[in-house]
Amino acid sequence: MTMNHIHIGTKNLSQSKEFYESFFGFRKKFDHGDGVFLEDDSGFLIAIDPVDSVPELPSWFHLGFCLKDKVAVKTIYDRMETAGIKFAKKYQEYGEDAVAFYALDPDGYKIEVSWHKD
User: Fold this and answer.
1) 60-98, pLDDT tens digit by residue?
2) What residues does 31 pair with on adjacent strands?
């Protein structure tokens, strides 16, 4: 079984779409009513629909992207920092085994970006 998609709401569709395209390589797959489906290279989809308000989620809730190596994680972190993206947790290295940071997308969804040795 493979997870196929997530579905999130946004107060600004173009801003949210640009965030996932710019930093994670998603591309528009198709329109979905007033919203859009974005797809990455592995075929995973993010459905994004406009909403009047974004729900408050538990502090532990996040979406996670695992990258191929620590250099890729640091590169995205640096790009996000330059772009003025807000962070819930700054870039950290955990010895030689892992690196991670938590960014906030335009609607405040927490996004983990990491690399793990195993």
Assistant:
1) 999 999 999 999 999 999 999 999 999 999 999 999 999
2) 36
Q: Where are the alpha helices (DSSP H) in 12-69?
A: 13-24
Domain extents in the chain: 1-51, 61-118
Instruction: Using CB atoms within 10 Å of the CB of residue 98, give its burial: 0 to 12 exposed, 13 to 18 middle, 19+ buried.
Output: middle
The tokens for 11 are 């107060």
CA pair distance 84, 115, nearest whole angstrom: 22
For 1-51, give the CATH class: alpha beta
* CATH number belonging to domain 61-118: 3.10.180.10
- The closest alpha carbon to 25, from 9, 6, 44, belongs to 44
User: Collapsing DSSP states into helix, strand and coil, what is residue 67?
Assistant: coil
**pTM for this structure?**
0.93
